[in-house]
Amino acid sequence: MIARYNCAIRYIIENGLDIGYVNQPRMTRRTIELGSRYSPDSVCTPFKSTLGSMIEALEAGADTILMTFGLCRLGYYGELQEEILRDLGYQFEFINLSEYNTGKKKDYLKAVKRLNPKFKATKLTAAGLEGIKMAEHIDELESIYYKNCGFEVEKGSYKKVFDRFLNAMDSASSKEEIESEYQRAKTAFSGIPLNKPRASLRVGIIGEYFTVMDSFSNLELEQMLADMGVEVHRWMNVSNRNLHYSGEKNLNVRIKDFCTYEMGPTSTANIWCARDYAERGFDGIIHVKSAGCTPETDIMPVLQNIGSDYRIPVLYLTYDSQTSDTGLMTRIEAFYDMMQMRKKVIR
Amino acid sequence: MKEAYLGIDVGSISTKGVIMNQDREVLASEYIWTEGDPIGAVRKLIGLLKPQFDGASYRIVATGTTGSARRLVGTIVGATIVKNEITAHAVGTTTFYPGVRTILEIGGQDSKIILVENGVAVDYAMNTLCAAGTGAFLSSQAKRLGIEVEEMGEIALTSKHPTQIAARCTVFAESDLVHKIQMGHAKEDIIAGLCNAVVSNYLNNVGKGKKIVPPIVFQGGVSKNIGVVEAFRRALGYEIQVDKNGHLMGALGAAILAEKSEKRKEFDFAVEEMNFQTREVCCGRCSNNCEIICVYRDGALIDSWGNRCEKGGPH
What predicted TM-score, i.e. pTM, was given to this entire model? Predict the structure, then answer.
């Protein structure tokens, strides 16, 4: 489970393959505790939270686990997690997409056939496209949400609309339902009265794919900022990074002055994105990663160059399996105060 | 009656308090150990500040708290402003040193660097996940060497050949240190080596990638260690300024912030006599088990925090 996409995966599995999907329980401290207990200590936190989440899904009655592939060590995580779960004595089917990630359509089909040997291609294609559309809607609404919810006149108006939409997506079973709820949420969003000071702060959040998108893992970083009255931007999501990604080569060309080579999974995109925020005159950039994340550690020197060239403050946050947000709050508050004092002097 | 402002900074290791007047003169100040009991420390602090304070000509109209226990202590003393220690330090230092460009700060558990331009902080960094090279490390090593942490600086200055000590991580530094002691290195050389290790750890972690420009002000408890000041001077090649109130800068910043904010509430020294209790409650209404901290004054709940969802609450 990652971020808010559980409902889109459920939709595709249920409607495209006619098999039941177990909605994993929302991640809590117990998830992290379970995951940490059975994980190697120095592995990155997403390994621990996904492992914990798998255990909770098995407890909830799942008999098959579908694990994504990835472009960093994530590609190896499925294999390791399967072995850990088998050692713990769980009985289940494990479909590790890393084994089928060859780029060839027929290999992906092999994975699908393991889920349901008698699946209908037309049905899966239709549900697949609709599920993807759902993910895009989630991204669009989430982006509007974090940009604006800090300025609502009546506290909680945005959350009410967004929660209703997400709840509807959890049980949606048709294209019409998805579209009508999406339209309703969009209209409701645009009708919420805002009280936005002209000099409000704009912050861009970049970083490691999992931690930056998953609000449980980043201790509600975006909400924390929004509650302080900040316009929060985040480019990284499934729509931008996966569905409409302009490609490693194309992005690399645009950051040639900062790095000669392509930087890997999300690094190229994050460097491009940081520079974009800087050029658009944002007040600050926050870089998010889990401890030990190699690709994101690699881009920190480049971010420092961007910070000094464009004179934009960059806050680096490293997350581990801690669940207390006191230290985070201190750093965020200080970053906020700094951006604000800075803004007064610049103008 | 003239106006005065109280600033309290409760850190992991020490608790600091100042009372300042409108001309930013320190009327009373105190520096004591927190000893793992922030509430007790604050009550003691207030008891120590009271006799220094001229209650006949001044009254305290605003109170600011900062440091890692700022919220708890803010509730207890009825603070008008509760601010994080990074902002408090930046505000304090830039008030007394308007031209400062770099603030180095090493406290008991954390260390930070603040870059300043035109009197405002423009960038900062703070140690995360690791307390290497902070005051707590120096204290524990002083204990190992059988000296007081306050004497370390003077002893370090007598060394002519500081011992090389691995500085990457306190755990490595500690084993390297033990090894060097057993090999027969002189004590003053080891102490000087420790001071160098703190500085190189700081510059490689907190200060990494930051452009350090003079004038430089060094503060926090560790700035009282002349050996570390000297090591910074050599490593950076610039003069390092240490304010005589450098260890109080967070509290001064909190007092200045209290003065600047418009909120006013007279401070009552009776806090010293009141009975405060905290209780940790595990919410238990979902599997997140939020740890909720409840603060009681004379048996009545006055504040609570730590709850993360709408289902939970103090109970």
Answer: 0.85
